[in-house]
């Protein structure tokens, strides 16, 4: 073999290797901040900082170097018990002009009750406090206990807000009734009023804020690249679901489910389908306890990742990457195994995927491209 041929062959092999590497899945994560107390949600501020909620009732700005800012002043009282506390936060689409944010939390009521509530506020110019704080929606009825608050917020393209609300566990049958907000996806204006076009406006005995019903505990929600609203919800023991909630549709809980009672045994009649109730787009058995949800619209991780859906697993501590074809999940990949309880998953303005892990020493992570 001549020296010239060896060089040509080596160059060809190197080019082929580089081409393959461009399609390799991302395997590493970069820790951006440590020491967060059960962080629940992250939003991206314009100068590269992060706005993070902590479930015990604190909201902080995390600097670009990972330094944790002092808790922001001005938050309302939070009922931090069990799964409740300070939960999701999102920036208004016009944040650069109005510095408005929306956040949801468990709001204390009388006699030990609480509810999922949605508030809006303005982040002060020095990012030290919340101003003009107003609770614009509070779930009815309030309930006792610290389970199943749901609490993800998504702003749609038309400026309305989707809010997911859990059925509070012990009141699961309320998810099938329209005279309450438990176990529902709601669609609201930015003032907290029922959004125009909601399916049950004017219907006697129905809450006008309801968009869809029959949900359990939805802790992940996002907009797809085509603008449709997607969400996922915790099943009981098995039966975590991904759904694309449509106006007025019934998603079945607790009448139909792919899960079972904790400890075993059927829920209700033990059926998985019934006329008039929607089937999930995708479900997990056993449960992964999903939280956080984001579509990747960038090509930062190569073409094979673009358009994939990313979901965090609280139970098994990994990031699920779901490949879609024709709006259906066709393959699932487990990434970052052992990273910890993944609470939130977001795509940042830079096109990269960011995660929060839920623990007393939670971390903010960035998924590193190959």
- Ends apart, CA distance between termini: 34 Å
Shape: globular
Main sheet record: 5 strands, antiparallel
Proportion of residues in β-strands: 35-45%
Radius of gyration: 22 Å
**H-E string:** HEEEEEHEEEEEEEEEEEEEEEEEEE
The overall pLDDT average reads: 93
Portion of residues within helices = under 10%
Indicate the CATH class. Answer: Mainly Beta
Supply the CATH superfamily name.
TolB, C-terminal domain
CATH topology: Neuraminidase
Stretches where pLDDT is under 50 for at least 5 consecutive residues are: 1-26
Supply the number of helical segments.
Answer: 2
Give the class from helix and strand content and strand pairing: mainly beta
Number of strands: 24
Any idea how many domains? 1
Give the CATH architecture.
Answer: 6 Propeller
Question: Summed up, what is this model?
Answer:
It is built from 2 helices and 24 strands. It is mainly beta.
Structure description:
With 370 residues, the chain is mainly beta. The protein has a single domain, classed as Neuraminidase. The chain has 2 helices and 24 strands. The protein has helices spanning 3-21, 95-98, and strands spanning 28-36, 39-44, 50-54, 58-62, 86-91, 100-108, 113-123, 130-138, 143-144, 150-155, 161-165, 184-188, 210-213, 217-223, 229-234, 240-243, 282-284, 290-295, 309-313, 318-325, 328-335, 342-347, 353-357, 362-368. Strands 5, 6, 7, 8 and 9 form a 5-stranded antiparallel beta sheet that branches. Strand 3 (50-54) and strand 4 form a beta hairpin. The protein is globular and about 55 Å long. It starts with a helix and ends with a strand. Residues 1-26 have low confidence and may be disordered.
């Amino acid at each position: 073999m001549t020296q010239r041929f060896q060089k040509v062959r080596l160059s060809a092999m190197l080019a082929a290797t580089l081409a393959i590497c461009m399609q390799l899945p991302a395997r590493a994560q970069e820790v951006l901040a440590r020491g967060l107390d059960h962080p629940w949600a992250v939003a991206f501020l314009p100068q590269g900082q992060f706005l993070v909620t902590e479930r015990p009732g604190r909201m902080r700005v995390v600097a670009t170097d990972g330094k944790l800012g002092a808790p922001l002043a001005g938050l309302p009282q939070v009922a931090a018990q069990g799964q409740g506390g300070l939960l999701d936060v999102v920036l208004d689409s016009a944040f650069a002009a109005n510095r408005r944010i929306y956040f949801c939390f468990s709001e204390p009521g009388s006699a030990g009750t609480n509810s999922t509530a949605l508030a809006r506020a303005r982040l002060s110019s020095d990012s030290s406090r919340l101003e003009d704080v107003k609770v614009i929606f509070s779930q009815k009825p309030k309930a006792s206990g610290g389970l199943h608050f749901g609490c993800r917020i998504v702003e749609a393209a038309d400026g309305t807000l989707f809010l997911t609300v859990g059925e509070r566990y012990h009141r699961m049958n309320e998810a099938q009734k329209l005279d309450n907000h438990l176990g529902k996806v709601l669609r609201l204006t930015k003032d907290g009023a029922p959004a125009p076009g909601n399916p049950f406006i004017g219907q006697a005995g129905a809450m006008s804020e309801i968009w869809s019903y029959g949900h359990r505990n939805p802790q992940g929600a996002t907009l797809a690249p085509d603008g449709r609203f997607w969400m996922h919800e915790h099943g009981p023991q098995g039966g975590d679901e991904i759904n694309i909630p449509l106006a007025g549709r019934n998603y079945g809980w607790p009448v139909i489910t792919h899960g079972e009672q904790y400890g075993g045994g059927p829920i209700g009649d033990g059926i998985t389908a019934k006329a008039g109730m929607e089937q999930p787009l995708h479900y997990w058995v056993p449960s992964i306890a999903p939280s956080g949800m984001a579509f990747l619209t960038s090509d930062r991780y190569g073409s094979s990742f673009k358009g994939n859906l990313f979901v965090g697993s609280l139970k098994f501590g990994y990031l699920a990457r779901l490949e879609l074809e024709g709006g259906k999940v066709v393959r699932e990949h487990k990434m970052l195994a052992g990273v910890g309880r993944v609470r939130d998953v977001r795509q940042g303005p830079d096109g990269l995927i960011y995660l929060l892990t839920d623990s007393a020493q939670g971390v903010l992570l960035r998924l590193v491209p190959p």
